Amino acid sequence: MAMFVAKRLLMALATVLVVAVLAFLLVHAMPGSPGAVSLGAGASQEAIEELNQRLGWNDPLFVQFFRWLGDAVQGNFGASLIDGRSVSADLASRLPVTASLAAGTTVLSAILGIALGVTAAVRGGLLDRILGGFVGLLVALPPFWIGIIFVYLFAVQSSVFPATGYVPFEVSPQDWALSLALPIITLAVGAAAFLARQTRASMLEALQQEHIRTLRATATPTWKILYIHALRYASLPIVAGIALQFMGLFGGSVIAEQLFAMPGLGQAVQASVSTHDAPAVQGVVVIATIVVVAVNLLLELATKFLDPKLRAS
């Protein structure tokens, strides 16, 4: 097990390094230069060249990369070319927003998706068809459209939740939860529908296994058969689906953050790319990659634990 973890950690570090190199090269392939971005369109060419020289933009690429990598390892991603703020400090303030959004959506979608999937697989018949049609409808609905409807119903009409904005947890735990409610519910609708389909298919396969039929023949309680034996057998694809959803939400929550004015990483990457803010782009890409790689590593460990064949290898 220790060797397995060590190999996966080395692969994770290699993945982060490759992504860092690609982000660095893509940033340098973007039009313009730090001096031009920082000083604006009205700056003279002499002033732009002087600032580029001070920033080391004219140094060889490998010198720039290792200088940036050395700072990044220490948690320093430089300063924004637009407003001069520390990129690390800005990302540190945005990371909890996206993490809360992704974690909350993952938990809610897992609860709803597993409950719907197990119910459809166990009950079957008309209920299965009704739930299947309902899940298919939820999958087809665009998240931004769902968000607009929820804002109208729960913020404009009833004022149950705030329509936009984010309140940090340390300021007010209650307002923090309320500010996350609509974005999480919006994203969880489609995520739960996908997970319900996955759970239903996995549970149907699990319920056909020989050991499940044996447990039924020995009068084992139904709840124990379903939620301990069958659900554990079906857990591998379900856990993988949950982890993939979290990674997708963490790296792709731009629509929700824009719709609900959430100051997260998705909003940061959209702003930094549109303004050619190279340090901010590199910082966001590296941080998002580290989180995704870490979750993928945990998924592999969970898979090895849940699968008896892998656990014995």
Notes on the structure:
With 313 residues, the protein is mainly alpha-helical. It has a single domain, classed as MetI-like fold (Orthogonal Bundle). Helix content is 79%, strand content 0%. Helix 7 crosses helix 8 and helix 8 runs antiparallel to helix 11. The protein is globular. The chain starts with a helix and ends with a helix. 31% of the residues are buried. The model has no long low-confidence stretch (mean pLDDT 84).
Features:
313 residues, mainly alpha, MetI-like fold, 0% strand, globular
Largest sheet: none
Helix content: over 70%
CATH topology: MetI-like fold
Taking all Cα atoms into account, the compactness measure Rg is: 24 Å
Question: In terms of structural class, how would the helical and strand content be classed?
Answer: mainly alpha
Output the number of helix runs: 15
Counted beta strands: 0
SSE blueprint:
Layout: H1 2-29, H2 34-39, H3 45-55, H4 61-73, H5 87-123, H6 125-140, H7 143-157, H8 173-207, H9 210-217, H10 222-233, H11 235-251, H12 254-259, H13 265-274, H14 278-306, H15 308-312
How would you sum up this structure in a few lines?
The chain is mainly α and 313 residues long.
